[in-house]
Amino acid sequence: MTRLSVNLNAVAQLRNRRDLPWPSVTGIAKLVIEAGAAGITVHPRPDERHIRRTDVFDLSALLAADHPGIEFNIEGYPTDQFLELVETVRPHQATLVPDDPSQSTSDHGWDFAAHSDFLSAVTARLKGAGARVSLFCDPDAGVEGIARAQKTGADRIELYTGPYGACYADSAGAAHQLALMAETADAARAAGLGINAGHDLTVSNLPAFIARVAGVDEVSIGHGITADALLMGFPEAVRRYNAALGS
Q: Mean pLDDT for each consecutive 10-residue tract of the chain (247 residues)?
């Protein structure tokens, strides 16, 4: 069964428009957990334009005290500051992305050949802190890319589903992207890696993704589920996304 992790960055970004404590990041976390989310994801960036360091600690405390069975996933580029944060908070999972700090959002996976030594060292450090390590992966990484990812010692890949999400009005393009991701996912499973996915996944495109790309452990969804929550509320949005996952 594919588990749903709700990314709360968009909630934090809305809060940060004013010097006010609402919408509450921890409050929304409680709502989505009660509605059936299996995990919480955050992506703190150095400029704190959405998730702040304080949010990371507040969420960690909330989950430890009230929801110990809910997974906490922290995404980010592995700067020393990020690594120290993960070592302090000790989330269940750390997802490493090759973002420039100025990027508005993640838009590509790692070049596993170029960054093999770097990722191997970072992965070993984070696993020493008790975190499962997932590496952001292009949909067309294929067998060769997965072989390089596996050599870093990582536990999982996260398929970057942005190109698939961009095909919302292009059925042929969507089918092509699904075929690429299915090949990469097959290679990952064969290499003993778990499979996560995320970026521009929606209630509409999730069923086809889950049907075509086998063995996905977890999807991390923020923008789409937040947009839907503006219309129907977070609890109902979570229920609909879980239904789209077949949960």
A: 97 96 97 98 95 98 98 97 98 93 74 97 97 98 97 98 96 98 98 97 98 98 98 98 94
Strands 156-160 and 218-221: unpaired
Q: Which residue has the tokens 């952001």?
A: 136
Looking at the annotation, which residues are catalytic?
Answer: 43, 75, 199
CB 41 within 8 A of CB 109: no
Q: Which helix (H) or strand (E) holds 121?
A: helix 116-128
Q: Are 244 and 30 in contact (CB under 8 A)?
A: no
What's the rounded Cα separation, in Å, for the pair 31 and 6?
11
The residue ranges of DSSP E strands in the chain, in sequence order, are 3-7, 39-42, 71-76, 93-96, 132-137, 156-160, 194-198, 218-221
Tokens of 64: 């430890």
With a CB cutoff of 8 Å and minimum separation 6, the contacts of 100 are 77
Global pTM? 0.96
Q: Domain 3-244 has what CATH class?
A: alpha beta
pLDDT of residue 103: 63
User: Helix count (H) and strand count (E) of the chain?
Assistant: 11, 8
